[in-house]
Amino acid sequence: MSATRVRQRPRSRRREVLQKPTGVIHVRVQKVGPEHFGIVGVDCAKARSKWMLCDFFGNILIPPLVVEHNRADLEAAVARLRQAQQLHALHDLIVAVERTGRYHHIVRQAFAAAGYEVRIVHPFTTKRYRQVSDPGNKTDDTDLAAIHRAAVNGFALLERPVEPSWRELQLLVRHRRDLVFKTSALSAQIREHLEAALPGFASCFDKLWDRALAWTLLRHFESAPAMHAAGLPKLLELLRRQQVRFQRPTVERVYAWAGQAAPSDEAASLHRRIALALYDDRTRKTQEIHALEREIAACLVRTPYVLLLSFPGSNVVSAADYGGEAGPMEHYANPKSITGRAGLRPSRYQSDAVDKAGIQELVPVSPYTDSRPPRISVRRVCHGGHRGSSVPMSRLYLWPGSSRPRGPPPDESSLQPP
Questions:
Q1: Is 0.85 surpassed by the pTM of this model?
Q2: Range of the structural domain that residue 245 is part of
Q3: Span 233-244, pLDDT tens digits
Q4: Which helix (H) or strand (E) holds 357?
Q5: What's the number of domains the chain is made of?
Q6: For residue 154, which of 63, 189, 286, 392 sits 20 to 30 Å off, Cα-Cα?
C-alpha cells in the first residue's frame, strides 16, 4: 500500500527589514553617517510646490520654501540645494516627492535631471504620518514633516524605470476604454431622443447601430406620418438611390409601424435633430475605437502578453487591457504578486488566540504610472474564526471597467525580485 503524500504549505519568507524593500535607506545612512545624509521633502500642488531640506535626524537645513512650476524657479531650487549640500557636508541625499495626480511630475523630473535620486511617497502614507504628530492640523509644513518621517521609515519608494512602449500601450488601452464608456453613454442618449421623436421606431431593428436603413430613413423623414405618407415604393426607391443595403421585409415592417405609430413628444423635430447629431458623434468615436485597436494590436505583439491570445476567449482587447495595466512582468517577484496590483491583498486579524484571515480590497496603483487601473470587485470576508465560514468572491477576474476604488495603497514588498 502506497503511503499518502501530505502536501505541506510553503513557508513565507521571513522579512529581513521592517521597511518597504524599495524604500530602504539605512544602508546608505550607515555608510555616510546620519548627520551627512540629507532628505528633501516636496509637497506638490498644481501651480507650485513647497520643499525643505533636513538631515536624517530631522534637523532643518533649509526651511520650507515655495517653488513655482517654471524653469527659472526650479533651477534656482536645485542650485540652492547644491549649495546647502556643500555647506552642511551632505555626502548622500534623496528627494522624497508626494504623489499628487500628475502635478508632481514637473518637480520629479527637475530633480532627476539634476542627478538626484527621486522617490515617491503615497498621499495615504503622508496622511498617516501626519495624523500621529499633528491630528486635525493639515498644512503644507505638517505635510513636509510627514513626508520626512515617511522617508526615514522606508516609505519613500523607488519607481522602476519603464520603457516608453509600455506607457504607450497603457495610454492607448485607457483611451480606448474611455471612448467605449462614452459610446455607451451616447447610445443610451440616442435611444432616449429617438423614442421621443419616433416612438417604437428603434424596435423595428434587431441591431439598430448596424442598420444603415434606419438612419437613412431618419434623416429623410421628420415623423412617422411623413414616412407612411411617402408610401412603400418611394421608401424602396430612396434606399436604392442612397445605395443602402436592405431587405424588403424590414422595410415593410417599418412602413407598417409608421401607419400605427404612437404620437410623438413635444419638440419631436428637436429630439430627432439631437439624436442624429449624437449618432454622428457615436460613429466618429466608433471609428476611433477601431483605429486604436489596430494600434493596440501592434503594441501588444511586442510584449510577452501576446501569449494570452492562445487562451480560449481571450482577444486583443482583453490581453492588451491586462498587459497595459500589469506592466512588465519582470517587476513581479512571483505570480501571486499580480493580485496585489489588481487590488486584492490577503488580510489577517490576529490578537492573542483570535486569528482571522480573508481577502481585503485595496487601492490598486499602477506599477509605472500614477493612475489607478481597474479593480477587481470582491466582497471582503473573514474565515477561520467561525464554524462553517467560507470565502465567497464575485467576479474574480482582472477585467477593466469598474468604478474607481478608495482605500490604502497596496503593499509593494511583493514586487521585489527574490
A1: no
A2: 167-298
A3: 999 999 999 999
A4: strand 354-361
A5: 3
A6: 63
